[in-house]
# Entry
Amino acid sequence: FVAIPNRHYEGVRGLSGDGRKKIDGHYALHPITPNIRQVDSQGGFTAAAGHSFYTARSFPEEYWNRIALVNEPTGNLLHRAVLEKDGSGYAEKDGWNLMASADEWASPIAAEVGPDGAVWVLDWYNFIIQHNPTPEGFERGEGNAYETPLRDRRHGRIYRISWEGAEPSAPRSLDPDRPGRLLDALESDNMFWRITAQRLLVERGMTDVQRRLYDLVRDRSVDRIGLNAPAIHALWTLHGLGALDGSHGEAEEVVRGALRHPSPGVRKNAARVLPRTPDNLEAILSAGLLTDDDPNVRLHAFLVVSEMEASQAVGRRLYEVGQREEVLADEWLPTALFIAAARHREGFLSAYAEDLGGVEFARTAAALARGELDRSVDWSGPALDDSDWETIPVPSLWRDTPMGSFTGVLWVRRAFELPPEAEGMGARLRLARVNDTDVTYVNGIRIGATEDAPDDRREYRVPPGLLRRGRDVLAVRLGNRVGRGGIWGEPDSVVLEGGSFRVPLSGEWRYRVAQVWEGGRRPDIVAGAPFARQFLRHYNPVTEGTGAGEAGEGGAPGEGAGAVDATLTLGVVPGEIRYDRTELAVEAGARVRLTFGNAGDLPHNVVILTRESAVEELGPVLDAYVGRADAAANDYLPEEIPLVARTEMASAGQTVTVTFTAPDEPGEYPFVCTFPGHWRTMSGVLRVEG
# Structure
């Protein structure tokens, strides 16, 4: 089942791009003879060929647009897959067989609804119909197939399956030169005729049929299962004829009216065919499709809105919709809503900031920029009581433990004690090999992360000042999508090492399951966590460098921190002791917010000095201060150093923010990192312009 086509994921951050799901609800097929031959998927569906729905009305109502016909030639049968609504998507259940044979040559490979409403089945009728493993003693011939007399290239069978209680189906004659008959066929109760007539009308390419099409769209009747199929075909015929290209006002008005049709299928398709214009966006909002009673209509409304021009009002409306429990509990609606919010993100984030409050919004954005996923599932802190968690050996593969073949998210924790001389020292953490994804914390601070790198060794630096005397805690958030998961390898490859100490970490760790990924499918949106917070993680003013005040108009994110005239961003070149920019510029006297993101492996900060200062003269002073007992607590910055502003020392992966007033005097003001030795390579200039 494809809920969200791939094109909707393009350009959207934070989503997996997998809008499909395997929805078959059972494995076993039901042959009526034990003599079946299968190379793989023994006892299950291995071909599952010729899948189509019953889309006429000549079978009992239970079949109508609900039962899929799935051929399994290796089991000599035609299966009934029953689809049922499941939120905005669908689930399948076992409907047993429509047809099965004890003839070992019977091999149904396709089944379709014919023009008479009956089911027509194509039986390949071949004893050998499977993969091509060549039995011992046989040779391969034409087409590389092994040669055997048990193949029949000449004879097949076609079956017609009808219902005795069906009304007789009148034959039709469709002629492109007789458009009236084509329009009549759009009203057939058999999709065979409707789709054929639609194709012929579009290929004919003439607009003289539009009036009749308008009438079909305006017809508000529905059948016993809530459909008005002729209206849906009329909508797509108008679309195919180019009547919805933006130049036919009446056609658009008719389609906008269909947004309020009593049939969910008509409402959904009306939204899909409308041109992506502001007027039609307003029509979709006015018709209430973002909160439609039918979840599948909502799903498509979100996707259509995601293709419209960005709008503050729509973003705010999407934020409101994102508070609804029935939306967040659905399998697909949160992802579609995320896609729509990405297009209209300024309004969405503005509404979030107003709802949360400017100060709290700024704190939340900063926390997410540091790599925190969600406070409700953050089990990294050293004070967390994990005494009731289960235990698991590390290193080990989960499949070799009571966990078994687990797919999802698992937190593991290990408390340890350092020798006294190791307090405050830097170290290197080795975690052997990890499958597949990890986010690793020491005492609640993230020190590293690796995504989707199964079997790769993990090695992270622990920055000085993070380790402490007494109890320290290592926490790892592990994600595994398929196959074997866990931290695995040799016992001595899980270790914390410093200059003068070595702490083995193998043994019994505590663990708790955070998420279960059914079928190995990783959800884009985590159930139970605030939707807006998850969105902010990927569209964060702090990490985007847009400045919180630019995220929306009126009540913008971050306003609680005070209005600013300018926003600056500065970062670190990964793997180097160097800022990613060496020059910043602001107006004299401006109120400035500086956001500093540390993408490096070591602690860094930003200290803006006075105009008279020189980095070369300051360096020896910083070097001499390193040996002081209070140096680390003061971010290695002597109190006597004159400065304009400073950030706090940011750990690896952390983002910090400072707000200050730029000097009134124009000129060049040096900035530098004061972590020991970094002043030599980490410096730049703030240019204050008059």
Remarks:
- The chain has four domains: 31-161, 179-192+205-355, 376-520, 564-689.
